[in-house]
Amino acid sequence: MTPLFLGLAGPSLSADERVLFAEADPAGYILFRRNIVDRAQLRGLTDALRALSGRADVPILIDQEGGRVARMQPPEWPAFPPAERFAALYEVAPVSAIEAVRANAQAIALMLAESGINVDCLPLLDVRQPGAHDIIGDRALGGEPMQVAALGRAVIEGLRAGGAVGVVKHAPGHGRAMADSHVELPVVDADAEALETDLAPFIALADAPMAMTAHVVYRAWDEAACASLSAKIIGEIIRGRIGFDGLLMSDDLGMHALSGDFGSRAAGVLAAGCDIALHCSGDFAEMRAIVDAVGEIRPEGAERLARAMATVAGAAVPASFEELVAKRDALLAYA
């Protein structure tokens, strides 16, 4: 198995993708809007990925946050609210907000499970900061660390109850970034004391099954490299100060915060300490270069992957999608 989560180009596997994926045996896959048409097609695609991998629990990821980040969209699937709605409710009724976001996450997970998707790249633990770039914005669970942690834990619990593994992101915190890492490399100048605010939710959820790194430079910790490429930040901050020992994946290798050829990008995040390199675009030439640049997944990475996927084995709680959504909406009406 190679330490890769890979995208694919369209709504079905091409002949070339089948050959490459069979050869490379990537640890898992990630889906985007371009891969999704309707319920029957999506279930057929996820079934095909499972059959190709030979693993019933192969991770099939998606970014289904709600609000502006949603790969499965109306009219085929219902819309979900952005995190900001739950943050607003927390300001007036914290317990209600926690229950609402938990019900929302379980409803999302039930929807994903119907389509054969078992990992959601959610929740964001980025603490929202005034004046920062809007790439986080209404996707954040708030601007107060313990609020973000409380709501984030409820999201993880709700996803697990619906049968999906959650991914905390973007470690060690994207909330201060003044640029969009999809477009350019953000640089954070805050000192180490100020950055404790950003770390707090990640420390509180250090037992999360999976996490995703940020393509952000934190000068207080490493002047030269963004977190995804920094052995110092991954070793001393994410594994050390935060205490995270779950599966750690990079953010997308295709984002413009990174430079160099794709093989070097993949090798770089793995050398820095990520267990998995994430590549989203489905560009075949890029995937070929990445596969050629990496070896087998490290034993500790394979163990973390197995441990993460085991968190949902038998964990699903029988629930009605409609009742969960009704509960969420009734609670949100108070905000």
Automatic annotation (TrEMBL):
Ranges where the Glycoside hydrolase family 3 N-terminal domain occurs: 17-297
Record keywords: Glycosidase, Hydrolase
Coiled coil spans: none
Family annotation (Gene3D superfamilies): Glycoside hydrolase, family 3, N-terminal domain (3.20.20.300)
Pfam family, one: Glyco_hydro_3
Any single biological process term in GO: peptidoglycan turnover
NCBIfam families assigned: PRK05337.1
Family affiliation: Belongs to the glycosyl hydrolase 3 family.
Protein name (record): beta-N-acetylhexosaminidase
Organism for this UniProt entry: Sphingomonas oleivorans
